[in-house]
Design brief:
With about 220 residues, this protein is mostly beta strands. It has one domain. It is built from two helices and twelve strands, in the order βββαβββββββαββ. The strands form two sheets. A seven-stranded antiparallel β-sheet has the order 7-1-12-4-5-6-8, with no helix packed on it. It has a five-stranded antiparallel β-sheet with strand order 2-3-11-10-9. A hairpin with a 6-residue loop joins β2 and β3. It is globular and about 55 Å long.
Length: about 220
């Protein structure tokens, strides 16, 4: 029987198909902005180093300057979860869960979830991969267990967006974006969770639906 020691409620969602970034959301309501529950981007792609692996990246707490990056932390009451649908019904068949405690990140799964949808449990009976949360300016700490790798810590925001040009297009003062544009997010960071898993652990489907959520302990 799976241990069900935490009940959680979903509070933020972004989705993506494999290899395609679908959405970015860097400025949220005050209740979630600059917290571990504030997802800025979600990426899912085949590992460029190992085509037998998939990489899942969930970025949170956008627009961090270097000073804020040095003090930023993951909320120990928030779980970051990657949902994976390998049957095409848009219900998670597998989950990968990242939880934070005492300066460490633990990634559980991939595993069939005990509960689907807006509530959930930490699947503590699943395979767990643990490592230290990397501090700003430090060498990356990467956990590796049975081919599953995990990283958590601050990273340069990879999302490119020209806010000034965008506002100009909306306001009618520009007819399009510049090439090259100006990256509004240059010099800012995010708190990132990166998990790499063998494809063999994700089922035999030719394609996957995958999305990321955050859930807060209640």
């Amino acid at each position: 029987m799976k241990k069900k020691n935490l009940l959680l409620t979903a509070i933020a969602i972004l989705s993506a198909s494999i290899g395609i970034v679908l959405a970015a959301d860097h400025i949220d309501a005050p209740g979630v902005a600059n917290t571990s529950s504030d997802i800025t981007d979600y990426y899912a792609f085949q590992s460029p180093e190992n085509p037998s692996n998939m990489v899942f990246v969930v970025n949170t707490q956008g627009l961090l300057d270097p000073t804020a990056s040095a003090t930023a932390a993951f909320d120990e009451n928030v779980l970051i979860q990657v949902n994976i649908d390998n049957t095409g019904d848009y219900v998670e068949d597998l989950v990968i869960q990242a939880v934070f405690n005492n300066g460490k990140v633990s990634a559980y799964g991939p595993v069939k979830p005990s509960v689907t949808g807006k509530t959930g449990m930490v699947e503590t009976d699943a395979t767990v991969t643990t490592t230290d949360i990397t501090r700003y300016g430090s060498t990356a700490s990467i956990g590796n267990k049975n081919g599953i790798k995990v990283f958590a810590g601050p990273r340069d925001d990879p999302f490119f967006f020209d806010l000034v040009a965008y506002q100009g297009v909306l306001g009618g003062t520009k007819t399009g974006f510049d090439n090259p544009g100006a990256d509004t997010f240059a010099g800012t960071n995010v708190m990132s969770v990166v998990i790499e898993v063998p494809k063999s652990l994700l089922g035999s489907a030719a394609s996957l639906n995958t999305w990321a959520v955050t859930k807060r302990k209640v």
